[in-house]
Write a structure and sequence with these properties.
By secondary structure, this protein is an all-alpha fold. The chain has four helices and no strands.
C-alpha cells in the first residue's frame, strides 16, 4: 500500500489508531507517578484515548501546515515545535 492510499484509508475511518493495551499501560504508569492505588474505569481510559488521539491528529495537521508554509512536503521537528508554540 502506498503512502497516499494509506493516508486516505485512515482519514475515512473513525476507529482508534493507538492500540488499547499499550495506551492503558501508559495511563497507569503516568497515574502511578502521581498517586499510587488509582483505578480507572474502562470508559474513562477510552475517553482519555479519544482525546489524546484527537489532540495528536490536530497537532499533526498544524505541523503539516507549517511544513507546507515552509514550502516542504516533509514535516520536521521544527514544524512540530512551531505548531506547539502557535497553539500555546
Amino acid at each position: 500500500m502506498n503512502t497516499n492510499s494509506e493516508i486516505r484509508k485512515y482519514q475515512k475511518t473513525t476507529e482508534l489508531l493507538i492500540r488499547k493495551a499499550p495506551f492503558h499501560r501508559l495511563v497507569r504508569e503516568i497515574a502511578q507517578a502521581l498517586k499510587s492505588d488509582l483505578r480507572f474505569q474502562s470508559h474513562a481510559v477510552l475517553a482519555l484515548q479519544e482525546v489524546a488521539e484527537a489532540y495528536l491528529v490536530g497537532l499533526f495537521e498544524d505541523t503539516n501546515l507549517c511544513a507546507i508554509h515552509a514550502k516542504r512536503v516533509t514535516i520536521m521537528a521544527k514544524d512540530i515545535q512551531l505548531a506547539l508554540r502557535i497553539r500555546a
